[in-house]
Each structure stands twice: as C-alpha cells, then as structure tokens.
Amino acid sequence: MGILFAKLMTVFGDREHKVIIVGLDNAGKTTILYQFLTKEAVHTSPTIGSNVEEISVRKTRFLVWDIGGQESLRASWSSYYCNTEIVILVVDSTDRERLTLTKEELHRMLAHEELQNAAVLVLANKQDMKGSMTAAEISQCLTLSSITGHSWHVQACCALTGEGLPASLDWMRSRVLAS
Ligand code: G3D
C-alpha cells in the first residue's frame, strides 16, 4: 500500500525535489531564486527560511535552498547535500579571476558521495554585462565535458531580467521527470 501510494504521488507530481543553489558570493544566487518565483514558476508558499523557497513548475515541485557563497560558508555546503537531486551552480560571468576557484569548488562538490545522483545546472549569469564570458567559455573553463558521472547543462542567463531562467526550469523539470 505504501509503495503504491508513493508511486501514485510520483505520477501526480506531488513529490518535492530538493535543489541547492551554490556559487561564490555575489554570483547572483539570491537574485535567481527570487526570479524563479516571479517568472515561469508559481510561488506556492514562503517556506522555512528567507533563502529556502518552494517553487512549482507545471505541477513539478522543487524545494530550492540558496546556500551562502562566502568562503566561511562554503565549508558548510556539504551539510545540505543529502537527498539533493539538482545542484544549480551560479557563475558571475564577468568574474574571470575567480573562475578557477569555482571550478575547484564544483569538482570537489561532485566528488561527494551524497551528490552522486545529482544533476548539475550551471547558470552563466550576468550576461547583460559588458565583457561577460559566454556559456561556452565558462563550460570550457569549468571543464564540464570531463563530468561523466552526472547529467549536466550550462545555461546563459541574466537574473535581473530573468532571461534564460524559464529554459533552466524546463531543464530541471525534464531531469527530475526522467529519473
Ligand atoms: P549572491 O546571492 O550570489 O551573493 P546576489 O548574489 O543575488 O546577492 O547578487 C549580487 C549582486 O549582483 C547584486 O547587486 C545583484 O543585483 C547583482 N546581479 C545578480 N544577477 C545579475 C545579473 O544578471 N546582471 C547584473 N548586472 N547584476 C546582477 P547589488 O548591487 O545589489 O550588490
């Protein structure tokens, strides 16, 4: 009965999918989270804390945790990994100097056993800014093509206008429905 119920919940899209938003400070994580709430997604409820929100995309529900990116907070990222289905890595596309640091954080994170089944969405944010790197450049610098154990996708976006974010939500939805 329990298994049947769980299956029915999945079919009707009632299960909540855990997502974490990571990235260095100032990348645009919080702006993106709140854009998700005001654009394609329907804001269903203000949840546990100021940086945890539930968003619903055509009946697929995500619980999205925006995790702080300052150096002092990065050490605690792993405490959020359990049951995470999607990791959103937000990159400030103008921040060339810290891209190597972002790369190291990304690959360290993906080696963590609790994220072995997580998919990775890299958001190349701040595309509106002059001199920003393209999604392809960021993909290359982060050596995304070397990631074989995780499904990944890179998306150019601008959190201020929301450009690129509906496509990101569509990818997230397709990932969780496929798994
Ligand atoms: P964080 O949560 O990753 O630390 P925030 O980052 O969401 O707080 O954003 C950091 C700053 O970048 C904010 O500016 C925010 O408005 C800006 N920002 C976020 N996304 C974009 C974008 O796509 N384009 C541009 N031009 N700016 C963006 P302030 O001035 O408030 O610090």
Structure in words:
The two termini are 22 Å apart. The chain contains six helices and seven strands. Helix content is 32%, strand content 26%. It has a seven-stranded mixed sheet with strand order 2-3-4-1-5-6-7, sandwiched between helices. The radius of gyration is 16 Å and the shape is globular. With 179 residues, the protein is α/β, with parallel strands linked by helices. Bound molecules: guanosine-3'-monophosphate-5'-diphosphate. The site of guanosine-3'-monophosphate-5'-diphosphate has 17 residues, from helix 2. Belongs to the small GTPase superfamily. Arf family.
Identify the CATH architecture.
3-Layer(aba) Sandwich
Sequence of strands across the biggest β-sheet: 2-3-4-1-5-6-7
Q: Into which percentage range does the β-strand content fall?
A: 25-35%
Unique ligands: guanosine-3'-monophosphate-5'-diphosphate
- Which runs of at least 5 residues are low in confidence (pLDDT < 50)? 44-50
Structurally, how many domains make up the residues? 1
Number of helices: 6
Q: C-alpha Rg, in Å?
A: 16 Å
Pattern of helices and strands:
HEHEEEHEHEHEH
Distance between the termini: 22 Å
What summary fits the major beta sheet? Answer: 7 strands, mixed
Which CATH first-tier class would you pick? Alpha Beta
Count of beta strands: 7
Query: What do we call the CATH topology?
Result: Rossmann fold
Structural class, by secondary structure, is alpha/beta
Binding site for GTP: 23-30, 69, 125-128
Keywords: GTP-binding, Magnesium, Metal-binding, Nucleotide-binding
Binding site for Mg(2+): 30, 47
Organism: Megalops atlanticus
